[in-house]
Amino acid sequence: MSTRQDSRDELSALDILKRLAQVLNQADQPEIRLQPFLEMMLQTLRDLCPDIARAEVYLRGDVGTSYRRWAGLGVPQDAPIAPEPKSSAALALTRREPVFPEAESGMVSWGIPLLTEGEALGVLRVDLPATSSSLPAIQAALLALVPSLCLGIQHVQSHPFIRALVLSQQLVATRTEQDMIGVVAEYVGKACPLLDLTLYEYKEEQFVCARSTVLAMPDTSELTDFSTGPADYPLSTAIPKLVEGHPIQIDDVYNTPLIAADKHEYFHAQSIKRLTLFPLVVDERVLGVLSVADQQLTPNELRGLQTLSNHIAVLVQNRALFKHTASALDEIQQVYRFGSAVLEAKDAASLLEAVYKHFSAPPDELALETVHLNEAGNPLAFVTQALITAQGSDESAKVIDVATYHLEAYAQLLEDGTPVLINNIDTDPSVTAPARAYFTGRRLQALAAFPIVLDGKLSNALTAAYFSPHIYTAAEIRLLHRLSEQIGLEIRNWQLLQKTQEQTKQLSHQVRLLESLYETSRQISAGLAKQDVLRTTCKNLAGALELGYAAILHCEQASTGCSVMAEHPAHLETEAPITLDGFGAYQHLQRYQTPIIVQQIESAGDLLGPNQERFKALGLRSMLLAPLLVQGDLIGLLVLAVTETVRSFSQAEMNVAQAIAAQIASSLRNAELFGEIQQRASQLEQIAAFGRRVTSTFDRNEILRHLVDVIPALLPADQVSLVLYSDGQPRMRVLTLAEDARTQEVRWPAEGSSIKEIVQTQMPMLIPDLPSSTYSDHKRMAAEGLNAALLSPLIVGNNVTGAINIGHKRARVYTPTDLTLLQQVGSQVAVALENARSFDVAQQHAAYDKSLSQITIRLQQQSDLRDLLQQTMRDLGGVLGAQRARVRLQTNAGPNGAKTREPEE
Fold first, then answer.
1. In this structure, what DSSP letter does residue 390 have?
2. Degrees (nearest 5) of the Cα angle 696, 698, 702?
3. What angle do CA 602, 606, 611 make, to 5 degrees?
4. Over the stretch 228-243, which tens digit does the pLDDT of each residue have?
5. Is 410 helix (H, G, I), strand (E, B) or coil?
6. For 123-152, what is the HEC assignment?
C-alpha cells in the first residue's frame, strides 16, 4: 500500500474515533443504561462503516466466567446468546489478545477482548466482507477504541449502584408507601413497565394483612392499591424463601405463591409475566416485597435495588416500632397510674376505690373476689372481698356458690389461669340457665373475670361487670390483666408483710438468744476446752435455750465409749463412759453428720440403746444430739435435753446447737493439737538428751540401760528388744531388754521374719494387729501376749546392723508419729552401738600391738636358741591364750642327705 493510501486509512480511522468518542462521552450521563449505551455505540460504528455486516458485544455474567450477548447488530434470531466455540470471539477471550483470522467464504470475523487490569470484561466481535477497502481503518480504529470502551462500560455499570445510594437518602423524607415507590421509580427509569411495593402487617407475630401500592407506569401518576387478608395471601409458604433476603426471579407470575391471586388480572392487563422480587427483611422477619417487572437488570442494578429495598425495610420497621412504642407508652403510663394507686392502698376496699376512678369507661361493678377451695384444691365458692361502684364502696358480702349456680366451667378456666369474658350474658351460649338467673338477679349483662394466682393456686379473682352488654376491647383486656397481676402482687405483699412481722418477732427472740450465746462462744474460742470453760458453756447453753440439761461428750479414737467432759447440772462426770456399742443415735451422727432429735427418751429404743436407762435416770424427756465434727471426723457429742415436759426443738435451736458444737469441736481439737505440740516438744528434748547420753559412752550395757529408760517416757511399750542381724546370716540375735538391765538373748531363724525384710529394704514397719501378721517373728511376739508393734532398722551409713522393736498388749495403739519417734531413737542407738563396737576393736588392736612389741624386745635379749624358742612360745601363748605350743626346726641337708632335729615343746 502506498504512503498516500496509508494516510487516507489513518485519517479514516481518526474520523471514526472522533465520532465514537462522542458516543463514549454520553456514558457520563446518570440516566444512561448499559444496554442502550452498547447498542448506540455499535449503531454509530455501523453508520460510519456501512461495510460492517455484524457486530456484537459479549460481557461476563454475575457468576463464574460465562459470557452472554448484551448488544448486537445483524445477528440472526437463532444465533446462540454466548460466543460460539472456536470462533474469533471465543479465541480472543482465551488468548487475551485480538484475533484477526484470514477470510473464510468471503467474510472476515474479528474478535477483540475487552480487558481491564488483565481480566476479560468481555469481547467485541465484528464481521466484514474480505473485499472491503475499509478493513485497515476499521481495524486500527477498533484497536484504539477498545481501552476507552472498557472504561465506558465500567463507568456505565457503576451508575446504578451510586444512584441507589444517593436516592436512599431521599427515602428518609418519605411519609407514605406512594412516596417510597416514587423514589424507586426515579431509580429504575422509564424503561420499567411496572413497580409494586407490598407491605405485610403483623399483630402479635401473626400475619394479618398485605397492603400493596402499584405504580402502573413510571411516567404516570396512576397508583392502584390492593389489600388482602392472610387467607387470600398464603404467606406461610412464601416466607421460607423470602426470609433469605436474596432477589428472586419469577418467570411466571400466574403460578407462584409469592404473588397474591387478586393481582393476576392486573398483571395480565399490563402484559406482565416476569418479575424480580426484592424481599424487605429485617432480623429474619419479612416486612414486604419490592417487585420490578420485565427488566434485564445488571449486577449493579441488582445491588442498587437491593440497597433501596434494605433501606425501605429498615424505614418500615422503624416507623412500625415508633407507632407501637408510642401506643405502648400511653398504655404503660396508664398502667403506672394504676400501679401507683394499688401500691398506696392499705386494704382491698381502698385499693379498688383508688383504681376505679382511673378507668376511662369505668365498669358498673369492680370487685375483688376471694376464692375458697375444697380439700382437692378446686374452687368451691367466690366471696366478695371488696366491691366498688359509681356510688362508692359496697360493704355487703356476697357469696357465689360454684355448684349452685353451675359455674364449674368458669371456675375451671380461672383455675387454669385463663380469664372469663362474657360480652352478653343473654346471648352467650356458654352461660347456663342457673348462671344466667344469678347474673340477671344482679342486673349484670357483661362480665370479665381475671384470675389472681398465688403459689400456683387460684387465690382471688378480679371482676369488671356492666349492667348492659359490653364488648371488651383489647386495651381493656390488657388493662384488666395487668391490674390483676398488680393486685396479686399487692396481696402477696400484704401476706409477706404479715409473715415478716411474725418473723420479726422470731428474729428478735433469736437475737436475744445469740447475744446470750456470744459470750459462750467467746469463752470457748479463748479457753482451749478447759474443764471449767466447758462447764460454763454447758451452763450458758442450758440457760439460753431454757433447757434442763446440757453435756459435752468426747469420743477417743479407737474407743468403745464416750467420756463426759462437762455437763450442767453435774450427774455423769464421775460415772463410766457412755457406751457406743448399740448407740443408734451415735451411728446416725457418724453417717449423716447432722443433729438428731430424740422426741421421747422413754420410747427412743435403739436410738439410745444401752444408754437409755442412764438418761432416763437423769429425768430427761426430750433430747437434741449435735455432732462435734473436725474435718469430717466425729470426735464427740453435744447433748441438749429438757427435763420437765416432752417438746420438740425448733430449727433455730438446732442451728444454734450446730454452731456451738462446731466451736466446741474446734476448741477440743485445738486443745489436742496444743497438747500434742507440747508432748512432741518434750519428746524431742528427751530424744536429744538420750542421744547425748548414748553417744558419750562406749559401754554397750550402759547404752542398753539408757534405751530401756527412754522408751517408756516416749512411747507406750510392754516390751523392748534389739535384733542384731546382717543380711545373708541364717540366724539373728534377739536381745530382750528389761527395766532392771537384765538382758535375755535368744537366737531365731532369719528366714520368714520381718527383720530380714527390714534389713533388706531399710524401711520401718508399723504393725497394728500382730496376730494377723504372717511373719515368723511377729507370731512369736503375739504368742508372748503382744498385739501391736513398731520396728525400725538400725542404720549406720549404708549398713543395717539390725532393728529395734517395741510391742504393746493393746492392738492399734501406735500411730505413724510414734513410728517416726522410734526411727529417731533407732538412729541414735545404731550410732552408739557402732561407736562402742569400734572402740572395742580399737582397744583389742592396741593390746595386740603392745604385746607384740614386748615379745620383740624380750627375743632380742636372748642369746641361746632354746631359751629364745621357749620365751617366744610363752609370750605368744600369753597373747593368744594358748595352753600348749610346739616348734619344729629343720637344718639344711649335707652331702649324705638331710638332717632333722627333734621338736622342742
1. T
2. 85
3. 65
4. 777 666 666 667 778 8
5. helix
6. EEEEEEECCCCCHHHHHHHHHHHHHHHHHH
